[in-house]
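pasting input
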Amino acid sequence: MKNDKIEKVKELLEKDIKNVKDIKELNELKVKYLGKKGLITELNSEIKNIVAEEKKAFGMAVNEVRDMFNKFYEEKKGEFEDALLNEKLQAEAIDISLPATNIPIGAPNILEKLIEEVEEVYMSMGYDVVDGPEIEEDKYNFEMLNIPKGHPARDAQDTFYIEGEEILLRSQTSPVQVRTMLEGKGETPIRMICPGKTYRRDDDDATHSHQFMQIEGLLVDKDISLSDLKGTIDVVVKRLFGEDVETRFRPSYYQFTEPSVEVDISCFNCKGKGCNICKKTGWITIAGAGVVHPNVLRMSGYDPKVWSGFAFGFGAERMAMLKYDIGDLRVFYNTDLRESSIFDREEDL
Ligand code: DAH
């Protein structure tokens, strides 16, 4: 059956098909033919005016036009989408002949590196690496280290108090000595080091910081003397700074050791001749140390008649500053990535 109206729509559609240029126009065509007032939609509503015996044929003819449109629509849509994708791929193509962006490679934090080196040396001698809390009790930070309330030695270690006068940020890693001894219950020999953050109420400058790192060490056993301490420190220092570096002890005073010493090493830079690093003295101080005070052993449950020991505390920043020739302590705590270049200098030292 031929119906004039249907034939006209078909003809128009064939023409439109040829002219459609992009997806926008294609969608406009969809509205033109299948929209509410679209040409095919209108044909459909004509059906009620058609005499009964022709209704079926009319309906079929309209469906044919609709199918024609849909087929055309899908085909064109596919074409346009492919073209769009190709365009995009071309625009985003990677030019592999371009030189790559240079992404600087990070380096381990200098302090961490130094601490790991120290840990390795001590672990090779059978020491455990232990941890302690940074928020500490006055009892462990001072009292059980033989520094009672009101003792003038506390002045040099003023710190930040968290709750009243009892809870504070530890001013030294020495409280970990007490904690380790309490765990040992007066029975177990101890060999430990404890690297960690410490705090003091200091104004920050090139050589002071309100937060810094110490590496604590404690050995408790039988018949331990100052010469064991000297031998141990000597091994560590040689491994860290070089075989020709010598150790010397100077008398000092700490409340938790008796006798107490300052540990000096011969300047690894000028070999004792005198330079800027050793301030022309030929020697550099790297730690405080001593033989554990009987009171400290006793308070933590170790009988000083049976047990003896030595303890030491390295200043981690100080060691790193010496080893890597860093002039300002604040370098460790700011975010200047240029400091990673210090590693290039390691070989020169
Ligand atoms: N805790 C001391 C300080 O902060 C350093 C120290 C000295 C630690 C002697 C020790 C030691 O274990 O025996 O100044």
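fyi Strands lie at 128-129, 135-137, 161-163, 167-169, 190-199, 211-221, 247-254, 257-266, 283-292, 308-315.
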